[in-house]
Structures are given as C-alpha cells and as structure tokens.
Amino acid sequence: MKAIRILRRNISSAFKSVVRNFSLSIASIACTAITLILVALAVVLTINVNNFTKELESELTIVTYFEEGTSKEDIDATIKRIESLAGYESHEFKSKEDWKMDMQATSSELNTALSYIENPLLDSVVVKVSDVTKLSSTAKEIQKLEHVSDAKYGEGMVDQVITIFKVVQNATVVIVIALILVTAFLISNTIKLTIFSRRNEIEIMRLVGTSNTVIRLPFIFEGFILGVLGSIIPIIITVYGYILLYDHFKGYLFTNIIKLVNPANVVVVVSIVILILGSIVGMFGSYRAVRKYLKI
Amino acid sequence: MKFIEINNCYKIYKNGQTAIADLNLEIKKGEFVFIIGATASGKSTLIKMLYREEKPTKGEVIVGGINVAKLRNSKVYKLRRRIGVVFQDFKLLPKLTVYENVAFGLESLGLKNDEIKPKVLKALEKVGLKEKFRSFPNQLSGGEQQRVCIARAIVNEPKLLICDEPTGNLDPDTSKEIMKVIDSINKDGTTVVMATHDKDIVNRMKKRVIAIENGVKINDSLKGSYKVHESH
Ligand SMILES: Nc1ncnc2c1ncn2[C@@H]1O[C@H](COP(=O)(O)OP(=O)(O)OP(=O)(O)O)[C@@H](O)[C@H]1O
Ligand SMILES: [Mg+2]
Predict the structure, then answer these.
(1) Does pTM top 0.80 for this prediction?
(2) What is the C-alpha separation between B209 and B224, in angstroms, rounded?
(3) Do B139 and A34 meet the contact criterion of CB atoms below 8 Å apart?
(4) Tell me, what DSSP letter sits at residue B157?
(5) Fold of A61-152
(6) Pairing state of beta strands B18-28 and A252-253?
(7) Residue of B nearest to A215 (CA)
(8) Which among B82, B93, B110 is the nearest to A6, CB-wise?
(9) Which atom of ligand 1 lies nearest, measured to the CA of B54?
(10) Among A62, A268, A291, B122, which one is most buried in terms of CB atoms within 10 A?
(11) What ipTM goes with this model?
C-alpha cells in the first residue's frame, strides 16, 4: 500500500514536471517521435523483405546449360562441383531431350520443326539455391565452372529490388542508432533540468531519510512519460500509413512480384516495438541524467 | 546513556584541508549541546558528519548505535529518519504552503494522508504556527520561516535535532523565540546539537558548550559560556 502511495505521488510529480519544462519536453518528444518513425520504417521494411524473400524461395532456381558435346562424365563432375557451392540446395538434371519434349508439347509448329532436325538444344541442370540473397553469387560461381555455357536465373529485377531494400535497411539501422543516441541525450538533458529545478526538494527528501530509489523514481518516470508520449505519433503514422499504402497498391508494391504483408500482421508488431523502444530510450536517458546529476 | 560517540575522528577534505582533527566526544541522550568556534573552525563539518553528509576520514562517529563511517550510501536514509536538521538558510519550498512544506517529507516517506495530518498539526503547534498553516513562505517573517523549518525537522519525531546556526539570519528578539522553541523540544526528550556564533544565546542558556578551534576541541564545559580565544 505504501509502495502504491509513493508510486502515485511520483507519477503525479513526473507529469507536473513534463508540463513545467514544456519546451524541452516538447523537443524531447519530437526527437523521440522522429527516431521512432524511422524505426517503424525499418521494421516495416524488414518484415516485408523477410516475407517477400521467403515467398520467392520456392522459385529460386538457376538453369545451368552445358556446352555442346560435353560428355556424361564431365557433366556429372560439374554437378558434383555445383553441389559443393555455399548456396546449393538441390538440383534436377534436364537433358536436351527433356527440353525438346517440353517444347514440342508447347506448340505443334515447334513439334514438327524439331522432329526433322537434329536436337539443337543443350543439356542442363536446374539448381535450387537455399535463399534469394545467394542467387546471383551462386549463379556467378556456376558460370565460372568448366563445361558450363551459361547460368541463368529468374527475374533480374527481383535481385535489384532486394539489393535496394537491403541498402535502405542498413542505412536506416545506422540512422536509427545515431538518432537513438541523440534522443537519449536530449531526454537526459530535460531530466537534468528537472533535477536542477527540484534540487531543494531533493535535498529535503534526503534529509528526512527518503530512500534513494524513491528519490530517483520520479525522474525515471518522467523519462518514461517522455518516451511514451514520443511514441504516440509514430504509432498513429505507422498504423494509418501502412494501411493506406497497402490499400493504395492493392497489396503489391511496384510490380506484382512484391507482395506486401497484410496490415493486421504488421501494424500491431510495429506499434509494440515502437512503444517499448520509446519507453526504454526515455528511461535510459533519464537513468543517465540521474546517475550523473543526482548525487545522493 | 550515550547517544553520540566520536572517537579519534579526523575529517580531511579532498583539497587537503583538515577540518576536524583527533576529536573525541560523547553526548548523552536528551542532552543539549552547543558547538561554538570562530568561522572555519569546523563546526559545520562536525555537524555534517553526524547526519552523514560528510564521512569521517578516520575514526568513528556513532549516532544512535549507527556507525556513520561504515554506513553505505544506500543505507544513509535509515540514519536520516532518526534525525531532524535545521539550517541557517531556511530551505523552504516556495510554492508549497506551510502545511505542505512540513508534510512534504512524510509524503515522500510514503505515509498515509490521515497519518500525516495529525503529525503535521502537532509539529506546527509545537512551534506556535498552527494558525498560519495555509500561508506561503514569502508571507512569513524570518522567524516564522525558521519555525516552519523546525516543525519540518521534528515532524517525524526524531531522536536527535541538529541545528547549524539556526539563528544566523535572525535579529536578537526573534533568535530568543527560536531558542525557546528548540529548548522546549529538548525538554520533550530530543537530544539537541546546535552550532552557533551567537554569544548571547550561549551565555544565557547555560548548557553544555563544546568549543573547537582549527578543528581541535579546546574546551568542553557543562553550563558553559562562549569562550573562544581572542587571537582571531
Ligand atoms: N566541502 C569542502 N571542501 C573543502 N574544504 C571545506 C569544505 N567544507 C568546509 N571546508 C573547509 O573546512 C574548514 C571548516 O569548515 P566549516 O564549514 O566546518 O567551518 P564552520 O566552523 O562551520 O565555519 P562558519 O562558522 O563560517 O560556518 C574551513 O577551512 C573550510 O574552508
Ligand atoms: Mg558553518
């Protein structure tokens, strides 16, 4: 009961000082908000890229054509080498006869044409890689192997989009870390001001024998409040922004290859991440100030 | 019965200044003790060690059974709850009323409002300020402000009241009133240790007087009076 009373008095004093240091509080809240919006962007991006990468995984194949006249032994040897590559997952041999039958099945003109001439197609092996990021590097390595005439893989664009996403994601992570530090510093400064403006109260509390924890608590609360207030706007922006984006593009981005994750699955996760991060940054900032400026 | 015990105590500040040297002292429960001495003689330093604002550099300072030198920072509050402190400058919170100023400490200790109220009113009555409980500090005279501070110091019924020049900012008549209040608190059983410059007060009160000079105890007499070497 005593703890609850102390807590209640602390919360109300923390709120009062957010209002009292209005301009600095607003600056802290705004900085927190900007940081968290970027965090939201990074998280939304990550969720989507991960999902999108997974979706593609079933079609992660490189078609490797062998040079004309390559012997059965050489083909087997090359396949052995392919199996030892880092991104390798499985393969399926497709001879030039298989290709011919495939083509003959697609149209009757091709069927007649191919039945009169010697098979002009190449033997091949269809290689599946373990994940999309290994697609191009594996293809390049296969291309370098002996007896390989060509190694081709699906959509060139997919690869490009993924590269762009990764770059954006990495840049966001760097910016977010920098911004988190700035935010913590700003919050720490706001709390420092509160500590100075309340130094008489602190001194009296020390003199009457208030425990250190209870003296520190309202400042940690104030940081927490700043962090939580700073996460409200980013949460609203994420929820509405992502739903609007999803509806506007009807669930796909740029092309119908890139499928967006359903808002219901994204919005809640991102909001929770933002709220937790906001309050942690707030409390971390105030903890720093308390350690540094609140001498007990 | 010993309440305060100081053995071979030294206080040397970080800058090398020796403020207290080889001090030995015993104060009994319920005593009234003046600490006198010229400026910079070490009075405040001695007093600060009693409530663990400063740690002794060497030796023992034992207050109500607690060894102050060995007390960890996180446990200081246990000592402070048994001690009331009054200063020369009043240190009242200007935005709080008299009542709120006295109640403030108890609130931060987590007492219930209906426990706080009788304690605050009792303390204000003791210092003769019950009628002014709604006033703000800037509506009070210096003497009244100091009385609020005394009420704040005794509201949690401490065993020891420590005063560092409580009359330093007050005129002689007001000082007399303050001393009456402190004396009556002592008569209720609270041990009082008071540092002062004020010759008149010390001479009139006829209490135990401990004189220090350059950090060294030079005199300790019951029913003493203000005696400091004139060399200053
Ligand atoms: N925090 C400190 N750091 C360094 N030296 C200090 C500190 N506090 C006090 N001193 C020095 O210790 C000596 C004793 O100071 P103290 O405040 O105890 O004197 P005092 O008797 O209370 O003086 P006054 O009557 O002026 O209040 C002085 O020389 C002072 O300069
Ligand atoms: Mg002094």
Answers:
(1) no
(2) 5
(3) no
(4) -
(5) Alpha-Beta Plaits (3.30.70)
(6) unpaired
(7) B108
(8) B110
(9) 1
(10) A62
(11) 0.85
